[in-house]
Amino acid sequence: MRSAFLAALLVLTAAARASASEIISVAAPIAPEKVYTLDDAERLALLNDARLLSAEQDKTIADERVRQARYLFFPEVGLQGSATKYEARYPFSLSNDYRNILLFPDQPNLWGQNTGTIYSGRGYFHMNIFEGGRTLGTLRLAEAGQKQATSAHESAKMDLLLSVKEAFYRLILAQERLTSSGDYQRAVEDAVANGHLDALERVEAEARQAEARAKTSEAQHGVDLARLSFLKILNVELDTPFRVEGVLEAKPVDVDIDRAVLWAIELRPELQSETYKAQMDAISVNLAAARRIPTIFLDSDYELTGVDFPLRNNNWDATVGIRIPFSYDYWSQLRQRKAEQRQGQLKRAELQDRVRLEVRQAYENLLYWQREWPLREAQLTRVQKLYADAGKGGAVLSRVRAMGSVLDLKLDYLSAVTEHIIALARLERAVGRELRP
Q1: Which domain holds residue 193?
Q2: Is residue 186 within 8 Å of 256, Cβ to Cβ?
C-alpha cells in the first residue's frame, strides 16, 4: 500500500509539473524573429525616427502659417452683443470696448419704467485697402518658411537613410566576421587535436587556439554592438529578436567630380534652405521699411441699442480712414534686419564651401576604396587557390598559420567592400541624389 501511494504521488507531481510548464509556455510565448532587408529597415526607420517626425511637424506648422497669412487678405467681420446694468445720476458713456454708448439718468423703456438696463448688438466690418505691401510680404515670408521646412525635412530624411545604410552593412560585416572567425577557430582546434606536436610546438598551438578564440569572441562582441546600433537607428525595442538579409557586394561607379559638385550646389536641401532663408531676410527688410508707409482702411458698423426688446434704435456708419505710423525704433529695426540679411549671406557662402569640401572628400574616399577592394579580392583569391593546392599535407602549425593568413585577407577584403558601399552612400548624401553604378 505504501509503495502504491508513493507511485501515485509521483504521477500526480509529474502531471502538476507538466501542467505548470504548459501554463508558463502559454503565458510567455517566444517572440517570432523578425527579418529585415535594407528596404524594410529604411521603411521602418522613416516611420519611427523622432527627428524626422519632428521635421514633419515643422512642415505642418509652416503650412498652417501660410494659411493664416492668406486669411489676412480677407476683411475682419464679426458680431458683438452686450447687456449693461447701470445707475446714472448724470449722463455718461461706456468704454470704447462697448462703442461709447451714452447712458442717461431716468432713461425709461416703452412702458415708462426705469430698469437701469441697456442692450446693444452690432455687426462690424474692417478691411485694410492699402498698407504698403505688408500683408503680401507676410504671405511671402510664410511661403518661404514653408519651403525651408520642406528642405529641412528632406535633409533629415537623407541623414536618416544614410545612417540606416551604414548600420545595416556594418551589421552584415560583423556577422561575416563572426562566421569566418568561428570557422577558423574550429579548423584550428581540429588541426591541433589531430596533429602530432612536440612540447614546444604544443605551446605555439595553444597560443594559436587562444588567438582564434579571442578573434571569435571579439567578433561576437562586434555583432552584439552592431545589433544594438541597428535597433537604435530603427527606434524599436532593443531586445527585439531579428536577423538581417543582405550581401556585401561592391560595384564600380564612374563619377564626374565637377558635375557632382554642381549637383550638390543645386540639390542639397541645406543649400536650398539657405536660399529660402535669404528670401526671408529680404522680405524682413522690406517689412521693416514698410512700417513708415501709411495704411488706408475701410470700416463699417451697424448697431441696435435700446433698454428693452425688440431693439428699434439703430445706427450705422461707413468710414474710410488713413493711419500714419510714427515709430521711434524704425531705423534700429531696419538696421537690424539688414545686418541679419548680411549675416545670412556670409553663412550661405560658408555653407557652399563646406558642401564643396564634403563632396570632394567623399569622392576621394570612394576612389580609394574603389581601387582597393579589387586588389584585396585578387589577393584573397590567389592565396585561397594556393592554400587549396597545398592540400592537407605539411606541418600542423604551418597549416594553422596559413589558415590565419587566409582569414586576415578575407576580413580585409570584406572590410574594403563594406567601406566602398558606405563611401558611395556618403557621396550620394553629399551630392543630394542617387549615383547609379
Answers
A1: 31-74+132-293+353-431
A2: no
